[in-house]
Each structure stands twice: as structure tokens, then as C-alpha cells.
Amino acid sequence: MFIYNFKINGTKTFKFFFSFMIIMVIIILCVSIFKIFNGANKNNEEEFIVSDSLNENDIFKIDGKNFTSILRNIHDNIDTYVGKKICYTGYVYRVEDINDNQFILARNMIISSDNNYVVAGFLCEYNKAKDYNNNTWLEITGEIKKGSYHGSDMPILNITDVKEITKPNDEYVYPPDESYIPTSSVL
Predict the structure, then answer these.
(1) Which class for 105: exposed (0-12), middle (13-18), buried (19 or more C-beta within 10 A)?
(2) What is the pLDDT of residues 102-156, one digit of tens each?
(3) Same domain for 27 and 62?
(4) Residue 181 belongs to a domain
């Protein structure tokens, strides 16, 4: 039977471990800085722009995966999207200060790991808006126009086609990207 004795030099081991940790911290720092500066450019390059991919008569289908990114981008760049047509599903949601011919076609956006959510959607105008109760799931097609809500410009969908549907399996949506900051944590 062979027995090996290993003699470990404590100062050399400490120096090696310390050097290794410093190198790891520098690598992590460099990667983080790269992501911060490259991430801002990447988001601008990958923004969804309906006008680049749609002709005047095309209708863009929004689903649960791209819902919040498109919603945010349209809100941020209303003039780019005026006249474009979109189709998406959501539930009827009303607030007290909208007109009788309006409702919000909304989805619940998960904002935390414990399933807290906020309501997100487009303000829609439709002559028969009163025919649909709150929480009724609809698939709508509408044309984006520029409107105003409490003095701020916002996109409003002028509904051209509506169909009542059953609640989908993927009823929740998620924040647009890693830069989203929920207002509930800020207020």
C-alpha cells in the first residue's frame, strides 16, 4: 500500500486562489459592461417596426410572445404606426373615464415571480362597444390612429372586425425586455 503525503504551501495556494478570483471578477465585470453598452444598441436594432414589414393592406398578428414589446414600441412611436392594422386577442377592460364607445382590450402582464400583474393593452373604439361585458375575451382587428388620453398622445385602435372567443391557455404576457421597470415597485 502506497501512502502519499502532499505538502501544500499555504502562501502559494492563497496567491493562486486570490489571483483566480481577481481574474474571474474582471471577466464578469467586462461581460457586464459589454452587455450594458451593447444591450442598448441591440434593443434599438431589434425593435419591431410595423412599417418595415407591412404594406398598407397587411394586418399584423400580435400574439402573447410579442404583445408587450409591440405595445410599448407603438406607444413610444405612435406616428410611425398610424394607419397600420393589427389583430390580437385580449379581454374587455373598462375604466371609469373612457367613452361609451371605448374599452381597453387587455392582457395581464406578469411583473413579479409571485404572479403579480398589471393590465396592459390598447384603448379601442367601436360603435358597439357596449355590447361586450368586462372580461369578455375578443379577437379584434383594428387600425391604429393617434388619440389623446388625459392630455397625452396615445394610440387608439379603431376596430374594424371583432369576434368573441374563449379564454386562451396563454392568457398572461410578460414584460417587453430586461430593461422594464414595473411602476408598482417605483411608487
Answers:
(1) buried
(2) 999 999 998 887 878 889 999 999 999 999 999 999 999 999 999 988 888 999 9
(3) no
(4) no
57/121 same-domain check: yes
Convert the pLDDT of each residue in 158-174 to its tens digit.
999 999 999 988 888 88
Domain that holds residue 35: 11-46
pLDDT of residue 149: 84
Angle at 111 between CA 107 and CA 115, to 5 degrees: 85
Q: Which long-range contacts (CB under 8 A, 24 or more apart) does 105-110 make?
A: 105/138, 105/140, 105/157, 107/64, 107/67, 107/171, 107/172, 107/173, 108/171, 108/172, 108/173, 109/68, 109/172, 109/173, 109/174, 109/175, 110/172, 110/173, 110/174, 110/175
Question: For residues 109 and 174, what is the distance between their CA atoms, to the nearest angstrom?
Answer: 5
The total domain count for the chain is 2
23 lies in the same domain as 55: no
Same domain, 26 and 111: no
Task: Name which of 76, 79, 92 is nearest 179 in CA terms.
Answer: 76
Grid cell 373615464 — which residue?
A: 97
Find cell 379601442 and name the residue.
Answer: 124
Q: Is residue 186 part of a domain?
A: no
Indicate whether 142 and 58 sit together in one domain: yes
